[in-house]
Sequence to fold (383 residues):
Amino acid sequence: MQEVNQADWNEVVKKSNFFLQPDYLQTLEILQQPTLLHRFVIVYLNKKPVWVACFQITDFTAHVFGDLVENQIQELQSKRLKLFDRYLNKYKNNVLMRLITCGNNFVSGEHGFAHSKKINKVEALILLEKVCSLVSQEEKLRGTISATLVKDFYSKELPKEQVLQKHKFIEFLAEPNMLITIPEGVKSIEDYIQLFSKKYRNRVKNILKAKEPVEIKNLSWQEIQKYEVPLYALYENVFNRAKFKLAKLAPSYFYEMKKKFDTLFYVQGYFLESHLVAFSSGFFLPNNVLEAHYIGIDYKVNKEYELYQNMLLDFVEAAITHKKSTLNLGRTAAEIKSTIGAQAHNLVCYIRPQNTVSKAILTPFINYLQPTSWVPRNPFKEV
Fold:
């Protein structure tokens, strides 16, 4: 990010998107080296910046895709894929595929590119396709097993013109973002819970009672550094359960983010007898949003103290306390999140394989990432 003309970058992004701000991107870039490569692009029109984008480049070893291929192998009759499956078993620790992502692998939502008002959404998407091709050429992907991923678009905001599909991008649905809109007049978590039906109020009452022995504390960056080892182990507990491990945080991620963005970023520790058993983190964004970020849990005590459920409620309380109108709880665990009032907002992704072999790998990959079925819950009283 240091090589980018930040004045030009800021002219396009302005303050509209925290996750496209140079300070954030530069911090992330430094933290993730060398596990994740970053590329930044500015497009000019008549010498004026009109479009910017960030790309992340990830190398996957064969074992990451091995399970995906194995789960689909009986359904896919391609001889090439069967041969490739044997390759996977033989070279499972070697780099198999390079994925270029336009967007941020660490947050969900539209954080890949931005454009000025001098061009419209369709023109911005045309530029996106052209720049994706240029980045692919620059990274010398031709002939390699690789793909370009563009994430995440809110489906309702996409133009009707299918710009990316015309250029061999495959569209697929990802897990939805779960968002809560804090109702007007709600001043406390108690006010919010009073909007629930009796069934869900009783449920929340039991959840809150379960956490009574747990001490909860907002951590300074010095305290985050002190607890770095157990905190990262708790993060890995959750990471290892993830459906697909796109990118892993650096061990120093949390304290570096807190040190850099003290008032915007927070980490909340959950302690049992002075022992850290869970944590949550989030960003207080300028656009009236609380972005729930990464969590960590000791699953051996999770159920007894309802740690995960209490974290969700604590996110709601933090949003209310800091007067944020929207809480973004991210993807995963959609049904549980809906029990506290979160609603699903569909996200669309696009992926373009570089060649036939890449496409063979991506078929089970896309199938695997399709949203799992779940039953939306409505905790609120019927009006």
Notes: DSSP finds 14 helices and twelve strands in the chain. Residues 72-77 have pLDDT under 50 and may be disordered.
